[in-house]
């Protein structure tokens, strides 16, 4: 593991499970000081214990990321305790499993709030501190869905596409402030993302996708994410051959990709 994260203060959203939890465990091994955020306090406490870090190096900071008005307050709490925020990991997110024709507009609003607007709010809260310290790193967990749109994920695809546009702009704006931006595009990772996805009316989908079930283990994904960030990669694609092929087909042979997407039902 690179020494890049050693002694850095890292704030992770969506830290109570899945990729967020795996990142917390890997960052603990790398010597980071952690701030763990999600809604479920008991799960955050479990992750905190799993890191085996001394209590003074882990802050549990419960947060509903859609409470945008709390972003600045939460960032200030971290500064009060640790004096700086070196890395912001935007990992909180929600997926979708429903067709456009069936999906309530409220569901689209909720997806955009969690997957896009929350990252904007938190970025704007953290950015002044990073500019002041003339150093920082945003690690943004997008998805292959941020490059390739597929059926039953229209809102999720849209939110992830939006992340790329926003953080590409930010990366250019803060280059002279020594602030890095890494946008990560995982493919199928073995997490509960499909179980917790929203259906057409905003309820939990509650089913494990076949491709998700056989996806890359979250701990392997986490190590690849941290390696990409330490190498200052601007975009990182993590996943199996099928997902990676889709990304390149989107660039080189889009008509063929669109045909394949059309013929394949989500798995």
Radius of gyration: 18 Å
CATH class placement: Alpha Beta
Described by the principal axes of the CA atoms, the overall outline is globular
β-strand percent reads 5-15%
Strand order of the largest sheet: 3-2-1-4-5-6-9
DSSP, total strands: 9
CATH homologous superfamily descriptor: NAD(P)-binding Rossmann-like Domain
Q: What is the succession of H and E elements?
A: EHEHEHEHEHEEHEHEHH
Number of helices: 9
Catalogue the unreliable spans.
Answer: none
Alpha-carbon distance between the termini?
33 Å
Structural class from helices and strands?
Answer: alpha/beta
CATH architecture: 3-Layer(aba) Sandwich
Describe the structure.
GO terms for molecular function: oxidoreductase activity. Residues 8-192 form the Ketoreductase domain. It comes from Salmonirosea aquatica. Belongs to the short-chain dehydrogenases/reductases (SDR) family. This is SDR family oxidoreductase. The structure is a single chain. This protein has 267 residues and is of the alpha/beta class. It has a single domain (3-240), classed as Rossmann fold (3-Layer(aba) Sandwich). The protein is built from 9 helices and 9 strands. It has helices spanning 18-29, 41-51, 71-82, 105-133, 154-173, 210-213, 218-230, 241-252, 254-263, and strands at residues 9-13, 33-37, 58-60, 87-90, 136-141, 179-186, 189-190, 216-217, 235-238. A 7-stranded parallel β-sheet has the order 3-2-1-4-5-6-9, sandwiched between helices. A two-stranded parallel sheet has the order 7-8. α1 (18-29) packs parallel to α2. The model has no long low-confidence stretch (mean pLDDT 92).
